[in-house]
Every structure is written in structure tokens, then in C-alpha cells.
Amino acid sequence: MTLPRSATISETVLTPENEQEAAALVAACAAAARPLVIRGGGTKAAVGRPVNAEATLSTKALTGITLYEPAELVIAARAGTPLAEIERTLAERGQMLPFEPADARVLLGSEGEATVGGLAATNLSGPRRIMAGACRDAMIGVRFVNGRGEVVKSGGRVMKNVTGLDLVKLAAGAWGTLGLLTEVTFKVQPKAERSATLAIDGLDDARGVDALNAALGSPFEITGAAHLPAGLAGERARTVLRIEGFSPSVDYRVGELRHLLAAYGPAERIVDAAEARRLWQDVRDVRFLAEPREHAVWRLSTVPTAGPRVVAAVAGLGDARFFFDWGGGLVWLSVPAAGDCGAAMIREALAPHGGHATLWRAPADIRAALQPFQPLAAPLMRVSEGVKRAVDPAGIFEPGRMYAGI
Amino acid sequence: MVLSRARREDAVTTIAFPAPDAAVLGRREAIIAGLARLLPAEAVITSEDERRAFETDALTAYRQMPLAVVLPSTTEEVAAVLRFCHAEGVKVVPRGAGTSLAGGAIPQEDAVVLGIAKMNRVIDIDFVNRTARVQAGITNLAISQAVAHEGFFYAPDPSSQLACTIAGNIAMNSGGAHCLKYGVTTNNLLGVTMVLLDGTVIEIGGAHLDAPGYDMLGLVCGSEGQLGVITEATVRILRQAEGARPALMGFDSVETAGACVAAIIGAGIIPVALEFMDRPAIKVCEAFAHAGYPLDVEALLIIEVEGSEAEIEDALKRIVAIAERFSPKALRVSRSEAESAAIWKGRKSAFGAMGRIADYLCMDGTIPTGQLPHVLKRISEICTGYGLGVANIFHAGDGNLHPLVLYDINKPGELEKAEAAGADILKLCVEVGGCLTGEHGVGIEKRDLMRHQYSEVDLVQQMRIRGVFDPAWLLNPAKVFPLDGRVVQ
């Protein structure tokens, strides 16, 4: 393989200095049918099927915010830009990424600095996703290098754009299998003036999730809705709701919600703002399930009221720990890392309600033996394989990271 | 693009269609016989009179008589028709209600129109989990109406919501006046049943958030009927706000109005709607709706906020305090339901009111909002250069412009001039960092402008992905991509 002169190679890590170099490197790898792993900060490297690659393509040198217009609610950055830099820059102008991305290091025990590219490629969204949309909803533009070594752009910097096929969405959550993201543009949101958290103690899972959905079906625009079974955030179970906005509005909504949820027990406001902030951070980062480290952790998305039923159906797995975000629709489930880690039982329990389960944390040999991502029905899988070939004909990007064959 | 008033029969329009396939035209009787074996008699439309109802959409300057029209009632029937057309090599143009402003549903002479309007039932509503499963031919408004008794609604609200179908909304990724807060179709869609051209039925997503695998829902949204035919959809429904109320403010320059919008958003306020009109638009809308719009201003903003009565008061107080820094020439907060209705009536009837005084083309570019003063000045210069008038109405919060290029269809050459001015305006939108279409779609209208926004590499990549779903280019093939340089696998 010929490499541009300025590209640095350390062992088999390729670190292009700019998009053109990245494209040339990819073209060379494609010509040699040389598979690549894409590496940002590496915080989520241990998710998915282990990939056999000959080289690592690092975005470390592709950094910098390329556009920030607070009045237009838009920010763009090169793929290797640390997420922390984005969040700091936005915070200086009272803004934020709407979807509340998690710090994956807490659960995965990884190190490094999460990057914009890694965030986009994994489509990771936190508690605010129920109100503000997912990472992919905030993504309005991408530039990426496809498997032919061509630089492709899709979307742009404006938030309403229906010109041509939306490849931005395809790039979101493709785990690098559809190309090397070089730049991502996000729609951003003002930070709320105030935030309030209401907690109801002592509800069982089903009742807790019912309370969350009663609140989510109200006009009060809940931005966080989690149920934490006993033993996770205290001795008793806690059902927590977050309301954000201007101060008078937050006070009003807190009052209305207390009234609305009276049947579920007294909803107490968590007065200490730092405590409430920490609580939502812990929900976001799945800190409650970080220990025991040797447990496998699943991430389930289903219909909100089905969450507790799915968990009840897998009680046979033994020593399971879990909690519910997104009003019950997002279940984080920690089980012993033995056998299939409950894959068959979990997916069978989900089937009647619809949804999917991702093995988010497990030792590499288990991830290699199982299907960490939800298996797709045959027709959808065929189309997915076609899309992969249309973007990466030589199959060099993260082969098999999500599914065998793509 | 909208053509209003009387259509000039001899209008010379500039957008080309591919030459029809003579072999397919020659097999018309056999093709119709084949379709008749798959569907009940009343679902296959063949007479010229009846087909005429399907020869155009809301881009009425263009019309093409389809080979035949089929109106299936089930996913299985849709699959049977597509499988048949695939085997026979016959083009298919999917159709919802035919309200596309971009010509997305205009047929071709050698194509079968597949209308899904008969499939208009609500299948299931889950208020607790806040989703609705519907057949894809249901109208946008009918979804909101079906859930209104429990205080819910479906958020995207294109102006055509009374008529347009959810299938068409998905095909065009439709927006509306309230998408600054609630997002567009792609942000409110959870699952679809889609039939591929070869008859394969695929299920994408469900009633839960974030479908597994690649984001095929995101890819299908806005794909303009080129990847498959949507027969069912699951959408998010939301609880309605307790109330909503607009404020009206007029400024003596476009720049000042633009700066006021930026200051409101900069202060962390995201109104549910933020609409802009320039002087020509204000004049026509006021004459029609008697909304009490100020007539001595260059720019008018309608800003609406939601919540309880007290929340609305608080938000409007904040907005008014910001607006006063920009010395508005008029500033009025609605005090009653009737006043709110009148304010919105003016805005919502803008296109109709304009159609009473002139023919117009309605453009749909999006620009970075900071470019507003420059772009409005250039739009005015472009139209003046062609000897045409223009009125501007747009969604100020997200930069989605709807310039109405005014012309007289009875003056020879004016429509062509208007089309040329429209193209120049869209190129300008791209030049300043925006895009050709914010919510109407590409269709045939903007197809030949795609190279102004995308490089050849960008377009070829899109076409390669399109080819996965429809390698032979039989599904709505005259649209979106320029006719030359197509990638066929």
C-alpha cells in the first residue's frame, strides 16, 4: 500500500492529517482489500462483534469545530474533535446537544476521550431522548469517506432539508461500517433556565413505569423519566421525572404533576440541584450497573409499558439487576456473563412487544460467539447487505462489527 | 411550485420527461389484463376520463397520462401489483393524495400509478405508550382527529394536511409550521411496513424508539417513493399543549426582523412557530383575512408560544422585552381566541390569497437564518431582473423560505421567466450554505438543479443506495436524480 508522505504510521495505526489524506488511505486499503477499524477516542471500542482488521484508522488528527452559529442553533466539527470540547463550547453560550450523550466509560470501564465521530457512529442518546429526539435526530449533516475512498457529503447546516436521500441518518448508528465520518453537523438546543426532579419512592416496576407514562402523556413536557428498582439509588425503589424550562413554568408543572400523580404516592422534589444533576448523569451513564464488572450488560428498547414485563420474563437468568429509562422503553439489564448471557431468553421475551436487545458489555469471546446486535429479519438483512455493498463494496470498514457480512 | 388561476393549455414548460418505452405502451392491454387478475375490478382504472384525475399533482403545469391506475386495499395487493410490474418491467409511480408541490406524484405515460388512498384506516391507537398505527393512505389531519378526543395530536402539520397522506409525508419527509419545536416527519416516525418492487414486504422499526440495524427509517423518509411503497406506519402522538397564543410584530427593515429572531433564539426561547412575511405578502394577506396586520412595515413576525395561560404570559413577556430592543413599529399580543385565529388565518391563507391576484411559483429553499437580509435582497433583485414581482413568506426559525414568484400565465414567456427566476433563487440558497428544498421535496421540479447542491460523487453514492432497492429504476424513476448520468446496476 502506498501512503501519502505526511501520514503517520505507528504499528498499524493510520492517522490522516486531513480529509483528503483519509480518502487516499481508504482508497489504498480498498485496493488492497485491507480491512480497517475506525478509532476515535476508543471509549466504545468494546461494543459489538470483535473485528479482524489489518490496520486502525484514527481520527485523532481530524479535529476542530468548523462552524458554530448560536443564533442558528447549529454546530459542526471534524470527527476527531473531543465531545467535551463541543459541550464546553456550547455551554459557554448557554446551549447543549439536545440528546444528552452518555459517558460510555462509566459502564464499559474504558479510557480515552469520546469524539464527535464516535458519538454519531453509535447514535447514543441519553434520558432527554424522549423529549428532544435521538442523536440521529440532531444530526443534520455529515461528510464521510466511503469504501471507494471518495468524500461524500449529505445534509448540510440547515435544519430543514429534504434534498435527495438522507445519508446522514444512515451514517448515524452504523458503527463505522458505512465509512469514515470526517465531519458532523448537529442541531443544538438552549439549555433550560431551570431543572426540577420529582421522585416517588417505593413503587414496584410496573407501577413505577405506569406513573412515568401518566406523566409522559401529560402536556408538561417531561425531559427525563426513569424507574430505579430498590437497591440501585437507595434502599427503596425511586421513580424519577425531570421537568426543564423557565422558572415559573417549571414551578407550575411540578405542581400539576404532583397532583396528576397523587394516586402513586407523594412526589417529592429533589431540592439539592447537584444531587438531581448527579442522579440524571448516573441514569445517562448507567452507573448503577457498572458493578459488578464481570456481569454482561444488555440495552433493550421496547414499548414503554412492556419494559417491566420483559424484565419479569427473564427473571430466570438469576442475579439480574436492571433499571428503566425513557418511561420504561429503555431497559438496562445486567446478568451473569455465562452461556449466551440470556440472549435467547431476552429476545424471546421482547418478541411479543417488539423491540431490540443489544449486548452492550461482555467479554470479547462472548461477543464473538453471540449476536450482540439484534438479529434482523431476512428481508431487512438483505437490504442492509445491499446498502453496505453500495457504500463499501470491498467490505473494508469494520467488517462484521454489527452483523456477519456487513 | 404552484400554478394558480387558469392553466394556459399551451404553456411551454421546461422540465423534461424520459421518452416512454414504446414496447410497454404496445403491451398496454396485456398489462391491464394482468393487473385485473390481481385486483378487484373497481381497483383498476383504465378509461381515459378516469385516468385524467391522476395525470398531475399540485404541480399542475406538468401532466402525463398514466398507462393505468391501480387502487389496492391491502399490503398483499400492493405486493402483488409490484411483483407483477417488476416481472413485466413496467414503471410504477406511487401516489398518496397527489398534493406534491414538486411534482413527486406526476405519472409517466408508460407507468402504472399505484394509489394507496383506499388504505386509510387507523389500525391501533396506544395512548399510554403514545403511538398510532395507521394504514399509509390516511390523511395527516385524520391521524390528529383520531386521537384528539384524548387530547393528543400528530405533530408534523404541512399546509396540505387536510388532504395529504402519511405515505406522502414519509416520501417527502414533510414539515409544517410547528417543526421548530416538534421536528419533521423523520423525527416522529417509529415504524413502517414497506413493499419493495419485487414484492418483498419489509417491516422496519415498530412502536419502540430507535430501530435496530442501519437507520432504514431515516433512509426511507424523504426518498420520494423510489425505494418502496409504504403501506402502514407507526407514528408518535403527543399530548397537546394546554394552550397557544401568538404575538405579532412589525419592523421597518428585514434586517431588524432577522436580528430580533436571532435574539429570541439566542435568549433560549424556542417558540412553537416563528413565521415571517415581507411587505408584499402582508398587503395581500391583510386584504384577504383582515387580521389587523400593520401595513406600514417591511417585515412582519408571527411568534406563537404554548403552555398554560400563565406560561404563555411569561413567555410572551420575555419575547416582547427582547423585541422592544429592536424598536418594532407594531407589536401586539393576541388577547383572545378570535384574535389568534385572525392572525393565523392571514398566514395560513397566504398562498390562496396570493393566488387571487397573481399566478405564482412557490419555492422552498432553506438558508442559514443569518443570511436572511442578503438573501431577501438578492431574491428581490433576481425577480426584478426578470420583470417579475415576488412576495416572501417563510418559517423564520429554521430558515425555510417560501418566496412566491409572481407572474401572469396569460403573458407568453412569463411562466418560463418565473421558472428561471425560481431556479436562480434556489441556486442562491445553496450558494449561501442552504439547500434546494426544505420540505416540499425534489420531485421533477428541482431534479435538474441537484448538481448545484451535490457533487457527482454525492449523487452517485445516493443512486447506488437507491439501486439496492430498485436496480432497474422502475419506481418513480423520472424524479429526484437528473436524467443523465444515472447509475444503473
TrEMBL record, chain A:
Coiled coil: none annotated. It comes from the Bacteria. Keywords: FAD, Flavoprotein. InterPro entries: FAD-bd_PCMH (IPR016166), FAD-bd_PCMH-like_sf (IPR036318), FAD-bd_PCMH_sub2 (IPR016169), FAD-linked_Oxase-like_C (IPR016164), Oxid_FAD_bind_N (IPR006094). One of its GO terms (molecular function) is catalytic activity. Gene3D superfamilies: 3.30.465.10. Residues 1-191 form the FAD-binding PCMH-type domain. NCBIfam families: PRK11282.1. This is Glycolate oxidase FAD binding subunit. It comes from Chelatococcus caeni.
